[in-house]
Every structure is written in structure tokens, then in C-alpha cells.
Design goal:
The chain is built from eight helices and six strands. The chain is globular, with a radius of gyration of 19 Å. The chain has a domain of about 160 residues: 3-Layer(aba) Sandwich (Rossmann fold), CATH 3.40.50. The strands form two sheets. It has a four-stranded parallel sheet, sandwiched between helices. By secondary structure, it is of the alpha/beta class.
């Protein structure tokens, strides 16, 4: 089944005004950071700038602010570091749009793997704000937080798991071959969810973060890191 979701544009997308998902300013405190009332988007934009060595733009202290992004990166490696596998295993979860790939991945493959998934990062950064566009709201943050653990996982030969609809045959073959080239044992787990259920789940997802848009981002991270290591 091919169910390519139409991606809502920023201009035509309905915006909440009074619901709990509206991007209202909120108060945050991280480490020595001064108390600020800023939007989710602005908060993470400032953190990324600090993490990458930019200048402080407020009177906030250093330390805890920078650590937040590093915690997100390090947490993705923790489970796999405690459960090494020889050879390392790469699981690719495939299935139609809204088949339940993420639910399957987290329930069945929660331990022992580095989960490489750009949607996971987006959801952590957006804090449930469904009015934010994927990936535009956090494009730089997603790229930075996603590539760092991907590189570390491939370099350290940690087991990994990724998900993709699998509709692009060339993409998935390239992914499999790239992983094998650097020593991974590749397993493909396919979900056979019926069309009616997929369409119902897709209609009720509540956001535009579909694997149709998500998968090419993190698949590219894996392929690029594998190519870099193979060439080293």
C-alpha cells in the first residue's frame, strides 16, 4: 500500500489559539539559566547556539543550558552500550504509513539498540506542540542531535534500529548495503497492518510527522556515516 500523505503548508495549516497545544510563551529553567519566558522554538534555538559555541545573548550562566542538548545525544547511546552484540545488529522496521512502526520499535526493540529516528527528536524538542512544522521548526537541532549519536553508534559498532515505509526500493537497498559494508548484520522486520487500520491511524495522528517525511532524514544519516567509515 502506498499512502503518500499531503504535507500541510505553514500558511494553510490551522493554528490553535486557545488550546493547550498553542505555542504560548512558557517559563523554563535549566541549570544556571536565568528564568525566561520564551517560546519552545526560541528556547531550543538558543540552546543549540550555546551548544555549538555561540555567544551568550542574555545574562544566563553557563553549564546546565549546554548540558540539555548533550543529554539528548548521550541518552540515545546508553541502552546499546550496556548490551553489545557481535556482530552488531541493524534492525530496519518497515511498513505502510501509520502501520505502527514506532510503537513496534519502542515496544519490541527498546533495549540494546540505538534508536536513530528524526521524529523522536522532533517530538522531544516540540514538547507535544502539534502546531510546529516538521522538520522546519527544529531543522538545525534535529540534524545536530541526530547525526552525533548516529556517528557514535556506527563508529563504536553499536546495534541500531531505524524505521522507514520501505516504498523507495533504491533507498532501502542502499541502506542495507551500507550497513553490511561496515560489518552490520541486517534484519528487516516488516509490519503487515491492514489498509483500513493504517488509514484510520493516519487520519487521527494529530500532526504531520509521518514516516513518509521522516525516514529520508535519518536513513541519510546512517548511509552517510557508513560511507564515511568505509572510506576511512
Amino acid at each position: 500500500m502506498r499512502m503518500a500523505p499531503s504535507r500541510p503548508s505553514r500558511n494553510c495549516r490551522p493554528r490553535a489559539t486557545t488550546s493547550k497545544c498553542a505555542p504560548l510563551p512558557h517559563t523554563v529553567r535549566r541549570g544556571n539559566m536565568n528564568k525566561l519566558s520564551i517560546s519552545t522554538r526560541e528556547y531550543w534555538a538558543r540552546m543549540l547556539k550555546l551548544f555549538q559555541g555561540g555567544e551568550m545573548t542574555s545574562s544566563s550562566g553557563e553549564g546546565g543550558v549546554v548540558a540539555d542538548l548533550q543529554v539528548l545525544i548521550d541518552s540515545r547511546l546508553e541502552s546499546a552500550l550496556h548490551c553489545p552484540s557481535t556482530p552488531p545488529i541493524a534492525v530496519i522496521v518497515v511498513g505502510p504509513i501509520a502501520a505502527g512502526k514506532t510503537t513496534h520499535r519502542k515496544a519490541r526493540l527498546g533495549s540494546g539498540y540505538v534508536h536513530i529516528d528524526s521524529a523522536d527528536i522532533f517530538h522531544e524538542l516540540s514538547r507535544g506542540d502539534a502546531t510546529l512544522d516538521f522538520p522546519d521548526a527544529f531543522a538545525s537541532e534535529i540534524e545536530h542531535i541526530g547525526r552525533a549519536p548516529t556517528k557514535a553508534a556506527i563508529d563504536q559498532k553499536l546495534s541500531v534500529v531505524v524505521e522507514t515505509p520501505g516504498h523507495d526500493q533504491d533507498e532501502i537497498i542502499t541502506l542495507i548495503n551500507s550497513l553490511k559494508k561496515v560489518g552490520y548484520q541486517v534484519e528487516v522486520q516488516a509490519l503487515a497492518t491492514d489498509r483500513d487500520r493504517c488509514e484510520a491511524q493516519h487520519a487521527n495522528r494529530g500532526d504531520n510527522v509521518s514516516s513518509y517525511w521522516v525516514a529520508p532524514i535519518h536513513v541519510n544519516w546512517v548511509v552517510q556515516e557508513c560511507l564515511a567509515q568505509a572510506a576511512a
